[in-house]
Design a protein that fits this description.
Largest sheet: 7 strands, mixed
Number of domains: 3
CATH topology of the largest domain: Aldehyde Oxidoreductase, domain 4
Shape: globular
Distance between the termini: 56 Å
Number of strands: 27
Strand content: 15-25%
CATH class of the largest domain: Alpha Beta
CATH superfamily of the largest domain: Aldehyde oxidase/xanthine dehydrogenase, molybdopterin binding domain
Number of helices: 18
Helix content: 25-40%
Oligomer: single chain
CATH architecture of the largest domain: 2-Layer Sandwich
Structural class: alpha+beta
């Protein structure tokens, strides 16, 4: 790994001519361009040491989801190297720009890390292997077809001669890259597709892994910031004289017209000075907003006529109007915080000629763009160095903290300044999981068949908040995650002859953002809780009812989960609930086992089945499924952000609790890859966590919970 925790002053100064800061890994590939006989870059993805050690470059971010190991497996598989000698490093987005975006996408989110880059990273490994084989064949004077690579060794079949990758690296680096590359068949994988140990586990266990908040540079100062409590508000005034003589304080500065920061020798000094700093705010029009006013706006949207249509099959309204039986229910989902354990932070060094940033980010290129804009420098004179993330969940896809770090560093030219947000700042200035309400209406004909379904979502648009250029004629397609399209190819899992899914966009001043699982989380609750209600209204078992309407792949994962869980065979006092959804390219389902005694909920076990099409690391998938339930159940049990006078009220874990270890159920993951496609893993199963539990609670108590969090509900039996 190419991150460092500390360095001496000499290391800081070396290479700092021409405005280039060599802060340990500012030029990350210097090792690969060294003297003859040293480390060699074969291509952008593969670097080989003389002792056969292999460094694989990973452009995506690592935040605990295992993408780093999975992508390394794919490169190593095609490279045919010795997995025990593999390590990784992050290229920088600046290097990517300089090399015509050879690493392509630096964004890590939407469970896209592997599923959107697997082909070209595998090609990188295969191309490097072919160049090594070509170098060996040339040295021996034989045909390349007579040579093979395996376990970091190239062998000439006829003579038995062998050369290690390290001995061939210098020659291979000069070979012409192949024009045609053939990738292995998945059935022939030896490293990919296997549950190998993660490459980042050991340094996490022994404490040597470096997160952004750990970075230390010679002469570094630390800053912390307070932004207007109401999003969209402004900084009115502050009295720096009251704190600028406090111990360790170097400077008090306004930031971007919305905040004020204290720069000091250390974090605690900066934090205490900021606490004591008199500040006045202009809260703006958002200051009049409350949870009650937001709820009223969402309720109005449930019956509004001006809406965006996501899916329309047949005529759902006519089917409902002529139905023998109609079932309706209204659900709601609150704002929720990402609440990463590592608060937002970034370290920046700025001069008039160069700006460099070190930070945990999910989008290196967006961070680079933000840094360049704040630095008022061309992108070519800036770079961003990724650190490991102490939690991302979508929050670190935004680069607001990077922009702030650079603006603050500009006040101290040539000096490394680390910006660290306080927990309170982090909790109040998130881009939150969007708040929504949903009216579900289902229609049965006289024979008891489900013939119509109308799903009206009223709520915020993430794209309208963060990326309005992504709107399609004003519509936000992200709203319809898991709900798009009917028929055999559509995401929506149920075959209903008349289906209407629409959205009344209702935005507030509170930013909506990409939160792990995104809109799939509440969409799964709305659909799967209501399917349970429809089953009960039809007098049918919830699983049997679903199976009648589910498409084959959706039904397969639900069957797999229920079979492993022993659906319908629970012990006395234990109740099952089920849910399924399709999102992020994968089919997922869950069967939850719960008990409710004297109103106290106990989630005993959740069995989750997933079909991601292709499996790169089964052990990693199992852990991601379990981790997704930690996050999803925390949200279901406790996750709610409320608004008072325009500001988020929950500012720390005392008011925004998360799941405790003794509350975590046993999670069993069932992998049912059907092949032929590449789905995501880190996010889809979050969607089925809450509805499976909610449906099990109904089975246990007869109470239908239609809003979260569960902690605000009385779960004693109806």
């Amino acid at each position: 790994m190419n991150a460092i925790a500390s360095m001496d002053r000499r290391s800081f100064l070396v290479g700092s001519t021409a405005g280039v800061f060599s802060l340990g890994f500012a030029i990350p590939f210097a090792r690969a361009q060294g003297a003859a006989g040293a480390v060699r870059e074969i291509n952008a993805w593969v670097v080989i040491h003389p002792d056969d050690k292999v460094v694989i470059r990973i452009a995506r971010s690592e935040m605990g989801q295992g993408t780093l190991t999975g992508l390394a497996q794919l490169v190593a598989e095609e490279l045919e190297c010795d997995w025990s000698k593999v390590s990784t490093e992050f290229p920088t987005p600046g290097q990517n720009v300089a090399r015509n975006r050879v690493w392509r996408n630096f964004s890590t989110g939407g469970s896209r890390g592997i599923r959107e880059s697997h082909e070209y990273v595998r090609q990188g490994g295969a191309a490097a292997r072919m160049m090594l084989v070509a170098a060996a064949a040339k040295r021996w004077g034989v045909a390349e077809a007579e040579c093979t690579a395996a376990n970091s060794v190239v062998t000439h079949g006829a003579s038995g001669r062998k050369l290690g990758f390290g001995a061939l690296a210098a020659d291979a680096a000069t070979m012409e890259p192949p024009k045609e590359i053939r990738l292995k068949d998945v059935k022939d994988w030896k490293v990919a597709g296997k549950g190998v140990k993660r490459l980042d586990t050991a340094p996490k266990v022994d404490g040597t892994l470096v997160y952004g908040i750990d970075l230390r540079f010679p002469g570094m100062l630390t800053a912390t910031i307070r932004d207007c409590p109401v999003q969209g508000g402004k900084l009115k005034s502050f009295d720096a004289a009251k704190v600028e003589k406090m111990p360790g304080v170097r400077k008090v500065v306004a930031v971007d017209g919305t905040g004020v920061a204290v720069i000091a020798d250390g974090y605690w000094q900066a934090h205490k000075a900021l606490e004591a700093l008199p500040v006045e705010w202009d809260m703006g029009p958002g200051g009049k907003t409350s949870s009650a006013t937001i709820d009223a706006m969402l309720t109005e949207g449930l019956t509004a006529e001006n809406v965006f249509i996501g899916t329309k099959i047949g005529d759902a309204k006519a089917a409902i109007a002529g139905a023998a039986k109609v079932v309706e229910a209204v659900y709601s989902y609150p704002y929720q915080n990402h609440a990463t354990m590592e608060p937002m932070n970034a370290t920046a060094v700025w001069t008039a000629d160069r700006c460099e940033v070190w930070c945990p980010t999910q989008n290196g290129e967006a961070a680079l763009a933000a840094a360049a804009e704040a630095a008022e420098l061309p992108v070519a004179k800036c770079d961003v160095h990724k650190a490991f993330l102490g939690g991302g969940f979508g929050r670190r896809g935004r680069s607001d903290y990077v922009r702030q770090a650079v603006l603050i560093a500009k006040q101290m030219p040539g000096t490394p300044v680390k910006l660290i947000w306080s927990r309170e700042e982090d909790m109040m200035h998130c881009a939150f999981h969007p708040v929504t309400k949903c009216k579900m209406t289902g229609a049965f004909d006289a024979a008891g068949k489900l013939v119509g379904l109308h799903m009206r979502i009223s709520g915020q648009s993430i794209l309208a908040s963060l990326a309005p250029q992504g709107l399609q004629n004003g519509m936000d397609p992200v709203v319809f995650q898991g709900l798009n399209g009917g028929g055999a190819e559509g995401q929506f899992g149920y075959d209903v002859p008349n289906l209407l899914v629409d959205h009344a966009m209702r935005n507030t001043h509170i930013l909506a953002g990409f939160w792990r699982g995104v809109n799939l989380n509440h969409n799964a609750i709305y659909v799967e809780s209501f399917m349970d209600e429809l089953a009960r209204a039809a007098g049918e078992d919830p699983l049997a009812f679903r199976r009648k309407y589910l498409k084959p792949k959706h039904r397969a994962v639900l069957d797999a989960a229920c079979e492993r869980a022993g659906y319908g065979k629970a012990a006395p006092g234990i109740f099952h609930g089920v849910a399924q959804i399709m999102g992020f390219g994968s089919y997922v389902a869950a069967c939850a086992e719960v008990s409710v005694k004297d109103g106290k909920l106990k989630i005993h076990r959740i069995v989750a089945a997933t079909d991601p099409g292709t499996v790169v690391n089964p052990a990693q998938i199992e852990r991601q499924v379990a981790g997704s339930f930690v996050y999803g159940l925390s949200a279901a049990l406790y996750g709610e952000c409320t608004v008072k006078d325009g500001a988020i009220e929950q500012t720390n874990f005392d008011t925004y609790p998360v799941l405790h270890m003794d509350e975590m159920p046993k999670v069993e993951a069932v992998l049912v890859p059907s092949g032929g496609f590449w789905g995501g893993v880190g996010e889809p199963t979050i969607g089925v966590a809450a509805p499976a539990v909610l449906n099990a609670i109904y089975a246990a108590t007869g109470k239908r919970i239609r809003s979260l969090p569960l902690s605000k509900h009385d779960l004693r039996s109806a």
